[in-house]
Amino acid sequence: MKKFSVFFLFSFVLILSSCKEQIPQINSLNPRIGMMGELLTIRGEHFGNEKDESFVTIAGIPPTSSSYIEWQDNLIRIRVPEFGDSGLIRVHAGGRASNALLFSNRAALPAPVSGTDVGIGPQIASVSPQSGQIGSLVTITGNGFGSSREGCGVYFSWDAEPTPASPAEERSPGTVEVFEDEAGYELWSEREIRVRVPDGAVSGNLEVRTLRGNSRPVFFDVSAKPGTKTFRDKRSYTLAFGVDIQVQNAAGPNTLYLWAPRPAASASQRNTELLSRSMEPFVENYRGTTLFQLTNLSPNTTVGISMSYKVEVYTQETSIKPQSIRQESVSPMVSFTLPSAIIPSGDEQIKTLANTITGKERNPYIKAQGIYEWLIREVNIQNAGLTGGAIEALGEKKADPYRASLLFCSLARAAGIPAIPVSGVLVNRFRTASRHYWAEFWIDGFGWVPLDPALGAGAAPEGFSLRENPQGWYFGNLDNQRIAFSRDLSTLSQMDPRGRPAVRDRSYALQNLWEEAVGGLESYSSLWGDITITGAYAE
Fold it and tell me: Using one digit for the tens of pLDDT, what is the confidence trace for 373-386?
């Protein structure tokens, strides 16, 4: 009897654990663009066989009970209420919220451009194709775009899961700009633009923004994703950093150039705002840096530059069905499979090991997962700082966050997977920032997938709160307790071929240039301060 009771209790716990893990998942909506009052079919899994206390939200608002026509574990039929507007649809079952898919009210969609617009701003005549995957090429024709892209951009719709305190956020989707550093802009002319659908884009409005104004929005359908990407738990940070220059010896005409990093832009790190700056720059934004020019410095003088920014960071969670991934014959991110100054993916040891780990597997997601798991299993990853990079990590089977991110990217690129290292800072519960490095890899039709090998191995700095099951969670997901300053190595060009450049290894930004002395500036010292978090606000 006692054995039976123990068995029954063990089985009951297993059942409860299994149920707890079954988060509702929406796979498709039909139709995705419809009219209020129409029948909407939601297909997915883990909805529950009975509605009971479960419900659906459309743009954050639950329909009335009479709107539900059918409720099954993998299918819901519901009459879209008449209150209506476009918005994200979620299924709430068992106290858990599903991923979100966008339903668009046909009556609220931007009308196709017709006739002649009056004004000097950009005007979209057509978008071809009118739907496409992340990374696919889109041609926009019209006029008034400008002869160059300087100060201009193409923006797609972007959405985040709202906080419980402000569900109205769902009614105001944001935007994500096409990323220049990811080969996002192929052509920009007065009458034609060719861009790639950026990471994080969702179905919704597309518009062209120029110095002369913004175009009327046109609907674009982001289609056929092999999974879902959710942004939630927005956190706003204010931060400060700077550099102090002390000149020892200087004569005649001289110049010192300083490349100061800026918080990086991505689908999960957005709306960077300059709060203050002690000096006007020479170039405002060049490849993720702000360029300062100090001229005719005198001996025995000190110059300081300080900056303060505000940036929004979201927790990012991904759910991918590997069997739904369709590889392009030539990936739009093929440049991120090549060796670089810090990613030795062409090294014979790296190539041999990548081939050993991935074997005959062809699916890029499964290959990346295998490399990540090998890295955590076979390499001793610690938070303590080490010297060297990917080759040293492989030879010693020992890594810190910097080595681990570079070794993952090297193995991934050697296996044909586009991958980039990301550098920045982690923010612990005491609002103290520490330098950190992680990585992202690209899946055609889906976008960038984040991972953090160091945190996955449990190598967190003091005061940092790891997620439950860190090895599993930090592959494909990323917390909002970090600020990125560079995604991949920023390759900057010297201002003067006779200049004397200076670099800084293992800093919070990965860039090949930080300083360049020109002319009679014979000796000086520089102190780049660490990142100071001056405020953190959860929203």
Answer: 999 999 999 988 88
